[in-house]
Amino acid sequence: MEAMLSVNNVGKFFKDKKVLDQISFEVQKGEIMAILGPNGAGKSTTIRNIMGIMYPDEGTVSFHNRKEIPRNKIGYLPEERGLYKNVKVMDILLYLADLKDYPLKKARERALEYLKKFDLEGKENVSVEELSKGMGQKVQFIASVLHEPELLILDEPFSGLDPVSQELFKEEIRKLAKQGTAILLSSHQMNLVEEMADRLFMIHKGQKVIYGTMDEVKTQYANFKCTIRGVNDLAMLQQLPDVHRVEQNEGTSTSVLYLTKEVQPAQWLKSLPDEINIQELVFDRITLHEIFIDIATGKNLVVEAGDLDA
Ligand SMILES: Nc1ncnc2c1ncn2[C@@H]1O[C@H](COP(=O)(O)OP(=O)(O)OP(=O)(O)O)[C@@H](O)[C@H]1O
């Protein structure tokens, strides 16, 4: 795979506080790479260092192995939304495309296609201030991709979108990756990340905690869990083999049994005692959402953490 963007041992200080420490990852051509982490973990600072809004105190950022980051090859949807208010939609799109040296005729054609695709047909002469929040976000997304960037950085692209618009964005992001765009996606919506990302980098307190493909992360970090509906005694469940932790929510008859890494699913299921009350049983792995909460809170659902050497 071809690395479009390489972040190498990046460190960043704000006064005496080190907010990024030895951050290294790559974004490859045609992949969706997610950058995740709790609030204040360092995601935006990482992105700002990539975008040249600020510069790393340690380490390097390179694009196609070159230190010069060509701005016209990058598309960026920042977390802070906001386009010039008193300008027509098409005018702002063409202005931004022109800043990226993109041919205007082609930009206009692509803008009209995108407006149609995002249900904004006929809005090209509407002033940006007349758009709803979601519509404004769609226009800003269009602005970030209009010039056919090789690397697209999307900071919380789904926030504030209705489910239909989320689907449109998802579809478009997947399509761009398929066409070869390298995509760096920052999002707190774990279900969407789980669905979309090929690889992920998780940062916590400015340091790497997970880096690998979604499959590797699931296999290595997402231990199995078994959800049983049925009235059962907590102590009995806790004594079952390979049970790491049991959660029972008050007022429901559902128990979630978190299992150890070594568990053999088929053997474990066979070993369940006859007296256990099972109305429903689901056996699956913990979700990315649970992995995230585990790391952010130290809840210890994930038994081991480290590098996947992806
Ligand atoms: N301009 C700044 N001056 C001083 N400290 C800063 C500055 N920008 C960010 N920080 C600090 O750097 C750390 C990382 O912040 P950053 O905004 O990168 O986190 P984040 O992962 O993007 O969080 P969120 O999910 O809340 O957007 C935080 O401790 C934050 O307080």
TrEMBL record:
Q: Where is the ABC transporter domain?
A: 5-230
In terms of superkingdom, the source organism counts as: Bacteria
The UniProt keyword set, sorted, is: ATP-binding, Nucleotide-binding, Transport
Q: What are the recorded GO MF terms, alphabetically? A: ATP binding
> Its family?
Belongs to the ABC transporter superfamily.
Q: PANTHER family annotated for this entry?
A: ABC TRANSPORTER ATP-BINDING PROTEIN, ABC TRANSPORTER ATP-BINDING PROTEIN NATA
**What's the protein name?**
ATP-binding cassette domain-containing protein
Source species, please? Evansella tamaricis
Q: What is the lineage of its organism?
A: Bacteria, Bacillati, Bacillota, Bacilli, Bacillales
